[in-house]
Design brief:
With 549 residues, the protein is an all-alpha fold. Helix content is 76%, strand content 0%. Among the domains are: 89 residues; 213 residues, Serine Threonine Protein Phosphatase 5, Tetratricopeptide repeat.
């Protein structure tokens, strides 16, 4: 009698240890937990084979079923499920694990139906109903039906009586809503995490997100008050540097520019070699580049990011900023040698003029879109148009000027430039982009072309929402002209507005592969080569393939 109880106790103990390892590893089964599940199976099998009248035989069968499931031996799990059903009949535990196994064996709809039935049956324990809702949510997420996935996830959280499980679910919900730019709902979910969790990591991350969202939606006082409250609580010491970063960003948003700069400097001194100090170095680089227009000092700070912390997410963009500054300096040296001679109209037929018009465009692009100094960028674009009217860069310069006027809410100047572009350069991709965004020019549009117009019009109202619309068009519509324009717009947006080379390369590559015979593909190929060259370790500055005089 005592022997098989000990064997069963050992099986349960191995299972608890395996579960603890799996949950600590975000649900993934590593070698150690796999070995423990194997031991569970051996011990439980011994009981099944040698003690058929054992009181907890059904529990031993369930231990085997679950262990085979987590070790991904789904057919063996299914065999023991059949055995459980034969000996004990159907139960909510049998139905739950049967649905789990069928899901993994590809019987998606059948498993969804079983989970829904389990979750709706109020006679079943709340724990199993919550788990069923959660499983259904994961299936819908795999099927990319995010709305349904979110509904079931919220139902799982509301039913769960386990505070730790509830907080984890609300944290997943909050992250999904935040990533889909549903900030107010995300804020509510992060607050529920803080209310329910005993897990310090979740509490820390959720509080930081609550602060960030309040800052993003303009509730700066709410964010600032929470930061100051947490900075007084030693239990949050592990995120003090992150809180200081957020406070610096709030100061910047409050137009307290010098105070924000000083806060970043103090972070580098108080929290050296941390991720926060590395981000502060990056922000200081931006300050001197954009606010104080000191490219030398900006480069100095950007250069310190990697040495401050090798794991910083700002290393790649800092290297890009350094190269942009180097490129600008070299282009500017070139420009200075001939700018005083810009007194009459030049022709692009002259190879020297061809290079000079390109120099002017690239200087304008860097100033306007990379260094966030649009007024200075305008000067270069206007010089290009005035002195090199035959240049192939003129349509792009006109488009850039109209974009800057749009950002400045000067619709009169913007519309004037757009009309000039459409009239003089109707076959260019820039004219096409304008035509697609204006209902006066094209009457017969597809649904996605209309969505493209909405995305364009919302850019100045809510940039994040606009980008989400462009992304949805790019992902949902794969054959129309709207799709090509959306993808190419995203490539340009991440290239010139956000200085995000990875995303820019992604969308340029899609343009090149999906629309290989278009002008957009030609430009995409050009930018892909330039960006890859620009990111490579080389002493040559060749971003724009401009040869100095």
């Amino acid at each position: 009698m005592k022997g098989y109880f000990n064997t069963f106790y050992n099986a349960e103990d191995y299972f608890r240890k395996a579960e603890k390892l799996r949950q600590a590893n975000n649900g993934l089964v590593d070698k150690n937990s796999q070995n423990l599940y194997d031991k569970v199976i051996l011990k439980s099998q011994k009981i099944i084979d040698n003690y058929p009248q054992f009181k907890y035989r059904d529990k031993a069968l369930l231990l085997i079923i679950q262990s085979y499931y987590y070790n991904e031996d789904y057919y063996l799990s299914l065999d023991f499920l059949k055995k459980l059903n034969t000996e004990y009949g159907s139960s909510y535990l049998y139905n739950y694990w049967n649905a789990m196994v069928e899901w993994k064996l590809g019987k998606t709809q059948s498993s969804i139906n079983q989970f829904v039935n389990l979750s709706k049956n109020e006679k079943n324990p709340k724990a199993i109903r919550s788990l069923s809702f959660m499983a259904a949510s994961k299936i819908y997420s795999e099927l990319e039906q995010d709305s349904a996935a979110m509904v079931y996830m919220e139902k799982a959280a509301n039913l769960s009586s386990n505070k730790e499980q509830k907080s984890r679910i609300f944290y997943d919900i909050a992250n999904k809503k935040y990533n889909s730019n549903n900030l107010l709902d995300a804020l509510a979910s992060y607050k529920r995490v803080v209310k329910n969790t005993n897990i310090k990591l979740l509490a820390n991350n959720s509080n930081l997100k609550i602060i960030q969202i309040n800052r993003q939606i303009g509730k700066l006082n709410n964010a600032e008050q929470l930061i100051k409250k947490l900075l007084l609580d030693e239990s949050y010491k592990s995120i003090f540097s992150d809180l200081e970063i957020e406070l610096a960003k709030i100061l910047f948003d409050q137009k307290k520019i010098n105070e924000a700069r000083n806060r970043y400097i103090s972070i580098t001194e108080i929290y050296p070699k941390s991720l926060s100090s590395a981000e502060s170095m990056f922000q200081l680089g931006n300050h001197y580049l954009i606010i104080e227009r000191d490219r030398t000092k900006a480069k100095e700070y950007f250069s310190k990011v990697q040495s401050e912390n090798a794991k910083s997410q700002f290393i790649t963009v800092s290297k890009l900023k350094i190269k942009e500054i180097d490129v600008f300096n070299e282009l500017n040296k070139n420009y200075i040698t001939w700018k005083d001679s810009l007194s009459n109209i030049h022709s692009e037929k002259d190879s020297v003029d061809l290079k000079r018009s390109a120099v002017l465009y690239e200087l304008g692009e860097l100033e306007a879109f990379h260094f966030q100094n649009p007024n200075e960028g305008l000067k270069y674009f206007i010089q290009l148009i005035d002195f090199f009217p035959e240049s192939s860069k003129v349509p792009q310069a006109l488009y850039s000027i109209s974009y800057i006027h749009d950002k400045n809410n000067d619709t009169i100047k913007s519309d004037m430039i757009k009309k000039k572009l459409i009239t003089k350069y109707p076959q260019t991709i820039y004219s096409e982009a304008i035509l697609k965004s204006n209902d006066e020019f094209i009457l017969d549009r597809s649904i996605f072309e209309k969505k493209l117009v909405e995305a364009e019009k919302s850019m100045n109202v809510d940039e994040n929402a606009s980008i989400l619309k462009y992304t949805n068009i790019a992902l949902a519509d794969t054959i129309s002209n709207a799709n090509m324009i959306a993808i190419f717009f995203l490539a340009n947006y991440y290239d010139f507005n956000k200085s995000n080379p990875d995303s820019a390369l992604k969308y340029y590559s899609i343009t090149q592969n999906s629309y290989p015979k278009t002008k957009q593909a030609e430009f995409s190929k050009f930018r892909i080569n330039n960006i890859n060259s620009f990111l490579s370790d080389t002493s040559l500055i060749n971003m724009y393939n401009i040869i100095e005089n």
